## 1
Amino acid sequence: MKNKVETFNRYTDLTALIDILSKKRMVLLDPSSWDDQNDVHFMAYYKKKRTLNSLLALCFTSKYETYHHWSVFAPNSSGVCIKYKRNELKNCFTNVEGVKFKDVKYKQITDLQCNDLALSDVPFLKRYPYKDEEEFRAIYESDVIEFVKEIHFDVSIIDCIVLSPWLPQPLVDTVKQTIQGIDGCEELKVYKTTLLSNSNWKNALKKLV
């Protein structure tokens, strides 16, 4: 499928990254603070109908990097993108009781009015204007009140770490060394995205007559 990649990408910041790598864990959180109130409403509805005491979530994108992803989800120099290997990440979720995961489906309002919805689809639905996100979502359901759900993993499920396009170049080596200095991350590939300045793109003009 066009724009699909072999990784699931998680945009976050350096503080969260250091926690993730140091503790070798992903953290699913309460979605009630999400910006998209339509999404919040759907998640709350699902939680109520399923009579759950906890519904936590963690979101990724299955699309190549875009300016939109960086500017919305990792909008400053401390932003990072964690690229998880697709199959390995899915296997990690499969081994955790209470976790469900799949690609988000994007629907027009008229689609919801015309079609019968299955309750199981509700936490994986978003409005069509968000389609460019191509989100992959994991949720955790529990009858016990929980505020976070930790999912531990081996660093080998990470393909690489991409640093912010706004990170000043003189800081790149320091940030890279800090990340690779974390136990178990010595061989982890770390680089700065060239989204805002790519030498190959610029040099292509030299071929013009």
## 2
Amino acid sequence: MNTSHRRPSFIKPAFLAMSCVGAFASSAAWANEPADTNASADAGDSKDQEILVNGQRLKEQRQAKDVAPIVNTPRSVILLPKEIIEQTGSVNLQDALRTVPGITFGAAEGGNPIGDRPFIRGFDSQGSIYVDSVRDIGSQSREVFAIESVQVVRGSDSTLGGRGSAGGTINILSKQPQLGTFGSVSGSYGEADFKRVTGDLNLKLSDMAAFRISGVWHDQDVAGRDALYSRRWGVAPSVTLGLGTPTRLTVGYYYLESHELPDSGIPYLYSIGNAPGTGNIASRPAIGQITTAGGRTGTVSRNTFYGLTDRDFRDTRTHQVTVRAEHDFGGVTLRNTARYNHNYQAYIFTQPDDTQGNVYGTAATNPTTGAAGTRGDLLTGGYVWRRANTRYGYSESLINQTDLFGKVNTGSIEHSFSVGTEFAWEKTRRGTFVLATGATAAPRCNTSTVSRYNCTDLFNPNPSDPWVNYVSDTSNVQTPITKIGTAGETQNDANTRAVYAFDSITIVPALIVNLGARYDRFQSKLTVPIANGLPPVSRVDELFNWQAGAVFKPTKDTSLYASYATAATPPNALLGEGQEGNALPTTTTTQNLLDQLKVQKTKSYEVGAKASLFGERLQLGAAVFQTDITNARTQVDANTVAFLGNTRIRGVELNVSGTILPGWTVFGGYTHLDPKIIDAGNSALTAPALTRTVGGVVITDRAAQIVYVPSVNNGKQTPQTAKNSFTLTSNVDVTPRLQVGGTAIYMDKQFGGYSDNRSATQNAAGVVTINAATKLLSREIPSYWRFDARASYRVTDNVSLSVNAQNLTNKVYFSQAYANHYATIAPARTVFGTVNVKF
């Protein structure tokens, strides 16, 4: 897939200039567009803060928290430039981030909404995504048409952005107006009716003002997947006044609207109740040749889709308005950024369910007598329940950041500093759609649920089944699908007040100390549906996070570093816009636990080395790290939570970016992780009640008892995390006009979740016995290699043609593993061509 912007083959790309202080880096200039004169006219800027392009040095676009160039920053930071996004044909943020080693992705369901869910160093970072250094709340699928570059800061990072950020942050840098007039238009067409048009126009309005507008129209089906489609369009205009002067004002707007049929993926084959055999059992997606418990054999192909075109949909809208004012006082800049953001999302999403045992089956034959026979229960396997996860709602935020940054000297010691404040108001509200899906049927698949298309054939589902909604699972009265309404909606409100400071202290040229601290007062309130009959609950958490690092520079272009950083995740950190292990209570039982809740803490240790080679054209990096969550929320019993949970990620990262030889560029690296859940607390088992029947009357001698046992997750590999991952994107100028290249991606196997068959029984005296597990089920997706290829030809100085082939070998692989029900299958080979015209 393709963003379709220009990348002239006669430009020799600069090295990936990245900068951050546990902070967001500045964007590198790779192409021959005008230099960004938005940067502060800081007379003290050194050559380290410039970018080498075609032998000329261009000033970087200054970010407020950018206090040191990447080689002098004691953190692992990756800058993904727009050239790599374009060359790889990425059309959304998730596509683009796949080129960064060490990032995996989690899948969606009802409680965890559809949207970007990247995992960095094994930790969910969906709540730690920023646009131009401002938090971008709300679950959404982000486009790339208005992106200049993407920065990935790895390691605990609440000092930078506030709450969350256990594994790292993602900062999207948007395209900004520049002094100059230039533009480009591109159009793409390819397999699966792939159609995409993008445009980018920058107009110089005067010697001090410029206007820029970017836009996209995208329409495609999905190669190798039945029925799926994705349609969207967006526009991003912005204007800057005062370019090249000490005082500047930028006003920008971003809008994206999308309509799609979301992919329901492939169900796992087994559940813990029907997995054959004993010991460790891997439950993988039911793809290829499958034999059910009843002996039926068939093939589940890549294109098999279990959703319903008459029911499923996803609609989204994003509005974002940004106003930024700044003024330079010599070598110091004062900047204020105000952002209003509104995201809307609604969907009905089929989640192919396997935990009921429908896929593999629970019996060799179907019952023919009794109530089960009357219902026509289907127990022999070969069916999929079309479980519907539904959601509608919005997120809204108003955020203001004020930053003062620059350089000062205290004697012979140089300080590159940034101090600032943040005030944020955030609100989310969500509800569900009302529909009957067979959820009250037990088992889920029987003659009735099949006839209503709530259950479908594993091997031959029909997405065009004429599904209709009924008043209930047993009613024959049809009814429209409706929203649950305000009485059934949940609302989250939050207010943040924060102050932060960073300082890169050059004691001597060979020794730099890097410090940062941030204080947040995070207040949140949860209002549950009126039907629950419960009052709103709220709490205030005060968060203090810090980071410290030291950099030793054997030479000007090399560095050795060590650092320590923290992160904090308070209850309700995601405001319901993602999966939260530390959520505010929503029921009478959980409200009793409110006072027991605490902030989850994370800390990271890292040592590494960096080098700029060949005149700063090639960047190399290596890091060894450990990240710990040491007091994650765990369940002790029904009335007690504790903060004893511990997850530990150890790893090694190798990164490379830039130009190896003139005309040969590379971007990528390798990550090895040792991701382990040390302690996940307890889980519940129920010892069934003891009953007897006397004269047809059931008498209960002992009520059921709930007991708590150590979690099955203890000692396991953390879900949605790959032990080994490798990516490499490379492009070579074969001639001054012809360029060829490609991408190789390796991802190790990933686990969605774990379960075992421990059980509990009790005797007449009420003594409970825990029966040891005989099965341990791991839901997993296998490792894979994916290869992409690309060729481009510059017809004239302003016209170029390119062809992208994604998943060149047509590999069948899975890109996301959900905890229980399904895994997301990747598209088949997709080939498309692009015509790009610049002016």
